[in-house]
Amino acid sequence: MRSIFIRWLAILIFCASSLAQTQAQPVTAAHTFSVGENDFLLDGQPFQIRCGEIHFARIPREEWSQRLQMCKAMGLNTVCAYLFWNFHEWEPGHFDWSGQADAAEFCRLAQQEGLWVILRPGPYACAEWDGGGLPWWLLKNPDIKLRTTDPAFLTPASAWLKEVGRVLGPQQITKGGPILMVQVENEYGSFGKDANYMGQIRQAVLDAGFNVPLFACDPTGDLKNGLRSDLFQVVNFGKDPQKGFAALRAVQPTGPLMCGEFYPGWFDTWGVEHHIGDNARYLADLEYMLKQGASFSIYMAHGGTSFGLWSGADHPGAGFLFKPDTSSYDYDAPISEAGWVTPKFNETRALITKYLKPGETLPEPPEANAVRAIAPFTLTESAPLFDNLPAPIAADGLHNMESYDQGHGCMLYRTTVAAGPAATLTVGHAHDFAWVYLDGKQIGVWDRRYALKSIDLPARAAAAQLDILVEAMGHTNYGKEISDRKGLADLRISGDNAIQPTQWQVYPLGLEAPMLAGLKWKNSLATGPAFWHGSFNVEKPADTFLDLHSWGKGVVWVNGHCVARFWNIGPTQTAYLPGAWLKSGQNEVIVLDLTGPATPSLAGLEKPILNELHPELDFSPKSKASPLKPGTMN
Fold it and tell me: Which one of 18, 172, 202, 438 is at 20 to 30 Å from 1 when CA atoms are compared?
């Protein structure tokens, strides 16, 4: 009995000691965040949000921490993060949150670096991203009305937001995470005026389990469109904060002032000079907001790269009816495309330092990644595109890419045209560029930038094979044009007795890994549209910039990573290649060039070339280039 008593006494003493130790340890209180009468309130105290936009999808996952550390060192206390719906739901109902798409890990890393997060889940984002983030498969429905209460759109959009809540709901500040606020839709006032639609998207966000403040953002002139009193409003502008905040006060008399997108630069489109922001004005307007205690988000703090085929297309303007975006999303941001300190970074950091709270200090910027040049090398193998076609799909008439379950890449349309005199070949639309061949000879090109839809069809003594190779650039990401279906529609041959082709063979060329793996390489130099293959060696992986001067128009892959689109007209003449995607020793390169290279060679440069235009190299007969030169199809 005595032994049992002693054992129980020891247990009681141990439990009492453990309880005392637990009570002695400090308990970390959960943070709180709210929208006050005049200020944002963090743990009940006024909090000025110094935010910067940064997109994890545009940064190699291996570099997320370095870029977040750069944001912190620049003086930011928050980062704004878009979710691109199509990046996570490539097929309906199949979600991907792994690897490069691991949004929860990005939020955890931000919190680890001492940064809060503002989440922007869409469903529409814009951001010069393919389709503004809207999945291409929505366009398989010919009657769908995007960004409306149409159930064909609202049902999958609500399912998307529910999935976002499942994955990122636990990252809210109310649950110990870094997410302070969640945006409902994006700049809807620039698209429509339906407050009911905004209300339904708001409810979908609430139903997804988000209980932090919800907000909407719009440019200065669009704040009244779709306005709702149950959504906090912020305003977007690139200059004149006094005017912007006056417009915000007109629709929202109380509450903190915030600029949701403050532009230090701008994005680039092919064929137009690289944009450089007005730095003096940027700094003056930023200081105005810092002085006034207004919150802001710099769009972009770090732009990064629209790797692969994810770059979108701007709406019509600047002399073009179609303006595809470059893969480089440098944006003239304070943090460069490769994550470097820039003069704008140093000036921003120095300015914010003047307005830090007592006791607040900024860490030093992290080291930039090593950068190395790669000696020129030649791609010695080629695979003509027309010799590497997949099995065709038989079709009655012409249909868009999306109707064949394809959202990106190229598509070859093939038919037979009857014998006949010279005529005109006209198409309802060719989205976005189409090279037209008759019995293997290129006879013209359709160019969406200039609404080129007609070409001369030569006389034919016998029936001939008509091939139309279509390249889709990026689904339009802004404006009413977001219902942007790719491919061909409504082809006709002129003439009273012309026989119209009705039977087609369609070859889907999605440019995905299985297609690349099946290419049949030859040790010869191809002409016309072709893939090219080669390799280079590096002793130690480091960042570099692929020099693409000698190539025409197409896409480049390195070690299986789809790095970028290229186009010799500029302004971008290089492609950022992260060292994280290289390996010591041999590295494989594949290039698809739709117009053919001057020489099939590449090199790695230590600095990017972002502003070099060559309109004389443009293939369009309506550009400032030399006339179209027919090529030969192999």
Answer: 18
